[in-house]
């Protein structure tokens, strides 16, 4: 039985117990007011309520079980679909790696790089969609993890596109307690933007101090008038770049659900994102 079913049945049981208490109180009122025989009234009331309770559960089971079964089937279908979507993406990446060994002329190498970038964008979209779906249908448990290791793991995903970028990391050893996959998705989106929107100076600085994680990247600053829109779904500051405008919306949702205060500020030579991780830090 999943958590949704447990919550439903517990809440229904509480309601029924409450009804029982009200009924007993009402019977006592009748006895006290009209002098009815208390023991007989209680026995009759208990019998009728037990029968009603039994009937309630029988009817609930016959009505609600198909709904729960439908919910289980939907979860199974979604998980299978996510798995099937991952197969073609993995196949593309595998074939690109094989072709890289045999292609040497510059023109075809550029074409292959475009395919590689497209597959990475597709994989990123798949990972965002997978997390968004799974957090709705499954209960996600928090776990302890190293912030520094999580950042390094996230950066590894961008090895092919961050080669020319100077990345400076100044992170003390700190342990967080949170939804690990969700936090990694948050970092993936922020670092992806920091790399994507970088300019010729090509510099990223990642710092952590006094519970504040900051990610700075050189590049064109976000227009101050657009700051209120950056977390909106499908919003993109520069529509000439690849992407669907989902990343920062996913980031904001995770921050709201985990009591992380996030702010984005334009700088003279770029943009900086601040995350207050006080509520995630293990004390």
Keywords, separated by commas or semicolons:
alpha+beta, 283 residues, 6 helices, 7 strands
What composes the largest sheet?
5 strands, mixed
Oligomer: single chain
- Low-pLDDT parts are 239-245
Report the structural category.
alpha+beta
Number of helical elements: 6
The geometry reads as elongated
Order of helices and strands: HHHEHEEHEEHEE
Number of strands: 7
Largest sheet, order of strands side by side?
2-4-5-7-6
Number of spatially distinct domains: 2
How helical, in percent, are the residues? Answer: 55-70%
| Content of β-strand | 5-15%
Radius of gyration: 28 Å
Distance between the termini: 34 Å
Q: What is the averaged pLDDT score?
A: 75
Question: Would you mind describing this structure in some detail?
Answer:
The strands form two sheets. The chain has a five-stranded mixed beta sheet with strand order 2-4-5-7-6. The chain has 283 residues and is an alpha+beta fold. The chain is elongated, with a radius of gyration of 28 Å. It has six helices and seven strands. The two termini are 34 Å apart.
Q: Nutshell version of this structure?
A:
This protein has helices at 3-34, 38-100, 106-137, 147-156, 180-196, 247-257, and strands spanning 143-146, 166-170, 175-178, 203-209, 212-218, 261-267, 270-276.
Protein topology:
Layout: H1 3-34, H2 38-100, H3 106-137, E1 143-146, H4 147-156, E2 166-170, E3 175-178, H5 180-196, E4 203-209, E5 212-218, H6 247-257, E6 261-267, E7 270-276
Parallel strand pairs: 2-4
Antiparallel strand pairs: 1-3, 4-5, 5-7, 6-7
């Amino acid at each position: 039985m999943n958590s949704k079913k447990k919550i439903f049945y517990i809440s229904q049981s509480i309601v029924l117990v409450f009804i029982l208490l009200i009924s007993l109180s009402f019977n006592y009122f009748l006895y006290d007011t009209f002098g009815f025989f208390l023991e007989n009234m209680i026995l009759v009331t208990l019998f009728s309520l037990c029968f009603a309770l039994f009937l309630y559960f029988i009817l609930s089971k016959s009505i609600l079980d198909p709904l729960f079964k439908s919910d289980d089937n939907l979860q199974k279908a979604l998980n299978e679909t996510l798995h099937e979507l991952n197969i073609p993406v993995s196949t593309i990446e595998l074939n690109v790696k094989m072709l890289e060994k045999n292609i040497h002329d510059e023109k075809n190498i550029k074409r292959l790089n475009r395919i590689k970038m497209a597959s990475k964008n597709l994989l990123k979209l798949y990972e965002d969609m997978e997390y968004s779906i799974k957090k709705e249908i499954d209960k996600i448990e928090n776990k302890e993890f190293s912030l520094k290791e999580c950042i390094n793991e996230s950066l590894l995903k961008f090895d092919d596109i961050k080669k020319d970028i100077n990345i400076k990391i100044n992170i003390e050893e700190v342990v967080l307690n949170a939804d690990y996959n969700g936090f990694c998705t948050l970092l993936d989106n922020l670092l992806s933007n920091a790399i994507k929107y970088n300019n010729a100076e090509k510099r990223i600085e990642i710092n952590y101090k006094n519970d504040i994680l900051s990610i700075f990247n050189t590049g064109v600053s976000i227009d101050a008038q657009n700051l209120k829109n950056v977390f909106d779904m499908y919003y993109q500051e520069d529509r000439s770049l690849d992407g669907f405008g989902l990343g920062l919306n996913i980031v904001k949702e995770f921050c709201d659900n985990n009591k992380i205060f996030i702010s984005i500020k334009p700088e003279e030579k770029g943009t900086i994102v601040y995350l207050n991780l006080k509520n995630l830090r293990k004390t």
